[in-house]
Every structure is written in structure tokens, then in C-alpha cells.
Design brief:
Blueprint: H1 2-5, H2 18-26, E1 32-33, H3 45-56, H4 69-83, E2 88-93, H5 95-107, E3 113-118, H6 122-130, E4 134-139, H7 148-154, E5 159-165, H8 177-189, E6 193-197, E7 219-223, E8 236-241, H9 242-253, H10 261-270, H11 276-293, E9 307-308, H12 317-326, E10 330-331, E11 333-334, E12 345-348, H13 353-367
Parallel strand pairs: 1-10, 3-4, 3-5, 5-6, 6-7
Antiparallel strand pairs: 2-8, 7-8, 9-12, 11-12
The structure holds pyridoxal-5'-phosphate (PLP).
């Protein structure tokens, strides 16, 4: 009976394949967990203190739809300093995912096409399907670079949005300035909304460039989940042309209502915290993996975020990952979760140095142990 109650949109996508790896891993004792999509560091103590203070001060009511004023003011000042554009406005979302959902609801019609770069963050494809649109995936294998000719060729009269993510999940690739500028201009010239998911911006390990520098119509989504190790607090932010932001706020009003109140005060405090120690730690862990694996694995070009997307040295990615988990207790995610191809696997280095050392050891053995 329940089946007939499901909406058509419920049938258009499955739950994330990452869950399946977590379920398998839950049965293992002391696994080598390189599958985690969140920082391995705790949120800053001053942010926790700010949240506790907010709770004790009775800050439990709704906030304005756009967020608490001190947080908006700080975020807006940062955006003003970076873009110097009086029409670029910011508001607080329920995580970066909240911003993505509002953008899809506010700007994508059923039947529209949305350009994604394959491999992509898992949520993008499902989100596009959720609003009745068609994901158009641009294959970026084998080096995960952005080929502007392919982007231009993918644009049709139905193209409504391009979702761009640098530093990228799952590849760790950071787009070059030329690539970013090219995509920004293509979007502007074709009057397509460019959404730039900048959640890993602080973990760039090199120069970060936002397409909003070249295209003032770009909608930027960002958040505190990764930068400050607080994904469970659900605070993100969006900035873009005032008219687009107003429309997103209308949807926020009738969906999320506001980001969690105490969490917004924690996020405000986070803006004062220096995270360079964590950025450095990720860079060192990435280098450990490059040093420990690059003779046996093609690691792609991992520059930022805390991921790399190596090619499975034998078999399909699914076959390889199954053996990694069952024989070597090593949890990684098969690439077909993020891609139309089943060739690579996502390795997250948001893990302790000890776990990474064990992981290198296991992955070296696994590379030499084909089915
Ligand atoms: C590229 C990307 N965007 C957005 C998100 C969602 O972040 P949030 O926790 O802020 O919703 C993630 C989380 O893994 C991500 O990898």
C-alpha cells in the first residue's frame, strides 16, 4: 500500500551508496577508515562556548529568516571586502546542503538541464532529479580537468544551471584560474546560473579562485561544516545577486525557516578562529599518501579538500573496494557513487596519522593482490 503513496520524485533517485560502505564497515573491528566526509578535528572550543552561552541566554527562538544580525554583518563584511559589489548579498542557510536545495527549488524548473562535472558530489545528481530536471554530466576523466569545449558543447536552450565545485569532492582537484574564468564567462555569455559550491575553499593547498570574481551573477554556497569541523550544527551561507537571494529566502521561510539558532552564534565565533593548523595537517596527510602510494596508484591530482580519487589498479572500483573492505578492513568509497564510471575510489584523509599509515600499508598490499 505504501508504495502507491510515494511521489514520482521519490522514485527518481536512490539513497547514497556511501551508506552501504558504512553498513559494511560497522561490522568490522578496528577498520582502517578512509571513507569519512567530515573533518577529523573537533569544532573550536570558543565556538562551543559561544553556543553554550547562547543556549543559557535563552536564544532558543526562531531567528530572522536570513540569520542573526551579527553573523550576517560579519559574513556580509567579508563578501564586501572580497567583491566590492553592492548588489552581492549574503544570508545564513541550514548547512551548504540547505543552500543547494533552496537554489534548486528557486531556480530550476522540471525539464530544465543542469550541468554537473563527473565525478560530482553525491547530492548534486539527486537534487537535480528531485526538482524534475535532467543532470547533464560532463566527463572529466582521467585528470579531472575542466574542458571548456566540452562545457560549451553541453549547453542547450534547456540549460538552466551549472554546478561547480572547487576544491572538489570526491577528487580533491582545485580548478586553475583559467578554468574558473572560462566557466564563469561561458555561464555569463549564455545567461546560465552558475552555482559555485565553495565548502572546501579553506582547504585549497594552493591558489583558490572563485568564479564570482569573473561573473557577478554567480551564486556562491559555503559553510562551516568542513572549515570548522561542525557539520552537525547545520550552518552554511549563500551570497549572490540580491534578487536571487530574495527568492531563496522566500523558500527558506517555508522550508528550513532558519538555521539553528544557537549554532549561528557558534558559527559567528568560528569566524575569529585561526584554522591554519588544520589546513597544514591536511596538507601533510595528503603528502603522506602521495609519498606512500603514487608508485602503485594513479592518484589523480589531489590538491585540496581532504580527498583523493585514485584509479583502482585492477578490476572495477566496486570489485576493488569490496576486497579492500572484506580482506583488508579498509573503508573507501567506490567511484560509481559519485560518477557514471566505476573506475576510481574515494579516499578521505580526514583521519589520524596512524590510520593513514595503516591505510597506506593495506592499500599497497591490495594493489598487488588482484582478484
Ligand atoms: C561538495 C560538498 N558540498 C556540500 C556539502 C554539504 O555540506 P553541509 O554539511 O554544509 O550541508 C558537502 C558535504 O560533504 C560537500 O562535500
Amino acid at each position: 500500500m505504501y508504495d502507491k503513496w510515494l511521489s514520482d520524485r521519490s522514485r527518481k533517485f536512490d539513497s547514497s551508496g556511501i551508506r552501504k560502505v558504512f553498513d559494511l564497515g560497522a561490522k568490522l573491528e578496528n577498520p582502517i577508515n578512509l571513507s569519512i566526509g567530515q573533518p577529523d578535528f573537533d569544532m573550536p572550543q570558543p565556538s562551543k562556548d559561544a553556543a553554550i552561552e547562547a543556549i543559557n541566554a535563552g536564544k532558543s527562538g526562531y531567528t530572522p529568516t536570513q540569520g542573526v544580525k551579527p553573523l550576517i554583518d560579519r559574513l556580509q563584511a567579508n563578501v564586501d571586502a572580497e567583491y566590492n559589489d553592492p548588489n552581492r548579498k549574503v544570508f545564513v542557510t541550514s548547512g551548504t546542503s540547505g543552500g543547494l536545495l533552496l537554489a534548486a527549488l528557486a531556480f530550476v524548473n522540471p525539464g530544465d538541464e543542469v550541468i554537473l562535472f563527473d565525478p560530482y558530489f553525491v547530492m548534486y545528481e539527486s537534487l537535480v532529479k528531485m526538482v524534475g530536471a535532467t543532470p547533464v554530466c560532463i566527463d572529466t576523466y582521467p585528470d579531472f580537468k575542466y574542458d571548456l569545449d566540452k562545457v560549451a558543447a553541453a549547453i542547450t536552450p534547456k540549460t538552466k544551471m551549472i554546478i561547480f565545485n572547487s576544491p572538489a569532492n570526491p577528487t580533491g582537484v582545485v580548478a586553475t584560474r583559467e578554468e574558473v574564468e572560462g566557466i564563469a564567462k561561458l555561464a555569463a555569455d549564455n545567461e546560465i546560473l552558475l552555482v559555485s559550491d565553495e565548502i572546501y575553499r579553506c582547504f585549497s593547498h594552493g591558489a583558490f579562485t572563485s568564479p564570482a570574481q569573473f561573473n557577478p551573477h554567480t551564486l556562491v554556497l559555503d559553510g562551516f561544516s568542513k572549515s570548522h569541523g561542525m557539520p552537525g550544527w547545520r550552518v552554511g551561507f549563500a551570497h549572490g545577486p540580491a534578487e536571487l537571494i530574495q527568492t531563496m529566502l522566500k523558500f527558506q521561510q517555508y522550508t528550513f525557516v532558519c538555521a539553528p539558532h544557537a549554532a549561528q552564534w557558534a558559527a559567528l565565533k568560528s569566524l575569529d578562529v585561526d584554522i591554519s593548523e588544520h589546513v597544514e595537517a591536511f596538507r601533510r596527510k595528503r603528502d603522506m599518501l602521495i609519498e606512500g602510494l603514487s608508485d602503485l596508484y594513479d592518484l589523480g591530482n589531489p590538491v585540496g579538500a581532504f580527498y583523493m580519487f585514485p584509479k583502482a589498479p585492477w578490476g572495477t572500483a566496486s570489485e576493488f573496494v569490496e576486497k579492500a573492505i572484506t580482506k583488508y578492513k579498509t573503508l573507501v568509497i567506490p567511484g560509481n557513487v559519485f560518477s557514471r564510471r566505476d573506475e576510481c575510489f574515494r579516499l578521505s584523509y580526514a583521519a589520524s596519522v596512524e590510520t593513514i599509515e595503516r591505510g597506506i600499508d593495506a592499500l599497497r598490499k591490495l594493489a598487488k593482490d588482484p582478484n
